[in-house]
Amino acid sequence: MYEKQEPECLPPPLFPGRKELSQKEPDFAIRQTLDAIKRKEADVQAWAQVRTAEELDADVVTSASAPLRAMPFGVKDVINVGGLPTKFGVAASSDQPVRFDSACVEQLRSAGAIPVGKTVTAEYAFRNPGPTRNPWNIAHTPGGSSSGSAAAVAAGMVPAALSTQTGGSIIRPAAYCGVVGFKPSFGLVSRDGLKLTSESLDVIGWHAASVDYAKVLADVLLPKMPAMTTRELRGIQVAITLHGSAERPDPEVVSTLRHVQKTLERRGAHCVEISIDKELDLLARAHTAIMKYEFARNLAPAIRQCGHLLSASLLNNVEEGFAVPDSLYFEMCAVQRELRTSWHDLSNGADLILTPSASGAAPLGQVHTGAPAFNKMWSVLGWPCLHIPVGVNSNNLPIGVQLIADWHHDFSLLELATTIEEQLNQKGDTND
């Protein structure tokens, strides 16, 4: 059952909030980051590379008066940071530093944020996991492929970290590590400086210690688009689906989602179950065809040069991708185009969709990062998705829910998620 009360094992502390940081000296956040990394990195192993204290201190001096005021952040190691190598979770990659930042890193730097280093990724942001472990219980996976970013935030090392999602690589690690995960609408964040594995699916997003921190990055990285931005829950329409691709949510996940539903209803929201299993299954098939087809072609040069150093899982997926017929690929791309603009039909005109983020809490072991059964359909649609942590399961591992909004309604999603997070964190909000 869902538990709102304090777990027996306390969760890892998150990074101090924005209000607290604003009252501290400019170098306070960097000192917090370096101290947390020093104390926890040996167990968590979230970082592929960390910049030196001297480099970070120099950035503090130049960014202390900027809007984000020396806020530290991590960067998944498939996204370029000038002066550091981008290794994609692959040992055979070059140690040569890249010259330029990616566009998203440059935007954050210009706003005063400081890249601390590169966070661990699964091999080429696919399935073969890196060394990162879940800060809640290091015997469990942190999820993937954005494992290091989610774990670094969950361990209180940084307040936010850039990540990517092709199937479920932002939302699922957020669920397993008990942090906020935000996948923006497809196409809103520049992918310049990102190693693309699927041009039709890849999205740069981020993990954050709170919805507030997620909004801080959104204010910098997303274009301001006209949309409903109310935080009021009364009167909003929420569609609910428990359907996943080839998986069903476990009872504790369902209990958590029902708790969120009742919390929303008590605040005046109208929640209605929707039946779109047929469409979601079609989207899951579309994801498989599109991802495999594009992944194979984008990874072919790396395989030609160093295929003997790559995992069997990746090589098998590339082989399967080259076997996808062109006709099937174009057919599934047409499905993607047709359904991407079908929000009203698929959601019954709701303001939000509420659904599980994963089938359960983080699995035991490190050999598998979990399945994107509740994520990849929404990745095909390109709609914005956000994971909110809610509580812990019977094993004291975090569980939460996924909120989805219409394409380009990213700020609407973030504003409503702010209120939902506040309501769920109220001390009087107990089990139903």
Automatic annotation (TrEMBL):
Region: Disordered, residue numbers: 1-22
Record's protein name: Amidase
Domain Amidase: 50-414
A Gene Ontology molecular function term of the record: catalytic activity
Upper taxonomic lineage: Bacteria, Pseudomonadati, Pseudomonadota, Betaproteobacteria, Burkholderiales
Organism of provenance: Pollutimonas subterranea
Record-linked Pfam families: Amidase
Superkingdom of origin organism: Bacteria
